[in-house]
Amino acid sequence: MCARLARRLPAVGSAAPVMRSHKGIHLDARMSMYPTTSKRIPSITGSVIPELVYSEQEYRDRILRPMYADVAPFDPEGILQREWLNARGAIARFERRAIEIRVIDVQECPAADLAILAAIVGVLKRLVGSNSGDAGGRSRWEVERLSKILAATTRDADQAVIDDVEYLHLFGLTGDGPRTAGDLWRHLIAELRRTAPAEEVAEFDEAWTLLVEQGPLARRILRAWDAHRSHVRLVEIYRALGDCLAEGRLFRAP
């Protein structure tokens, strides 16, 4: 379930649209580079999307042990023989009894980070509590099928087109045609506003509204820069982002 959700997290979490002072082809430049971080030992990153496994033992056998074996020639003291070596987009942390999601960029301030996390937790709770999480449906969501969505959201973030109708239906977005990742998140945030505790909605509603209206941070950065596209303006934007971090406020595009 976490793997299904993680495929479109760049749609709300993208925050790296610029590389070497130039606009890249990906709104999430960090995620575009992610699959190449372990070229010498590909098993560490895998396909970024976690493989389908259904128990802790199967996870250790299929993911961790091959990875440990591949890294062993470079790690004679066994320092890296730990579960955190795994660099997939979402990894099991058995020592913490948690799942660590790695496909979300750091945002402009902690309030934005927490708002995105609250949205993720809310959607995961909905998935866990629905029939879509049953064992009979899991085999349909193979790595290759989800990779297409991850690639699209890494490149286009909220404007990525999702044409897998069954995937859209999984999250309650009805209809027979393609929708954007932004459409899907608008739908999900509307559901969260309707079902989440009032105090949670009050805490995160400003950030959720900004995500729905102006898109992820990467989109807002480009909107603030596009009219000028100068290095001076880019420096101004990132200074403003530093102020957002220091002051704990959201970044809004002009």
Overview of this protein structure:
The chain has 254 residues and is mostly helical. It has helices spanning 2-6, 10-13, 29-33, 56-71, 110-128, 135-138, 143-156, 165-170, 181-195, 198-214, 217-226, 231-247, and strands at residues 18-19, 22-23, 90-93, 98-101, 161-162, 179-180. A hairpin with a 2-residue loop joins strand 1 and strand 2. Helix 9 (181-195) runs antiparallel to helix 10 (198-214). The radius of gyration is 19 Å and the shape is globular.
How confident overall, as mean pLDDT?
89
Sheet with most strands: 2 strands, antiparallel
Low-confidence stretches: 132-136
Global morphology? globular
Total strands: 6
Describe the structure concisely for a colleague:
The chain is mainly alpha-helical and 254 residues long. It contains twelve helices and six strands. The chain has helices spanning 2-6, 10-13, 29-33, 56-71, 110-128, 135-138, 143-156, 165-170, 181-195, 198-214, 217-226, 231-247; strands at residues 18-19, 22-23, 90-93, 98-101, 161-162, 179-180.
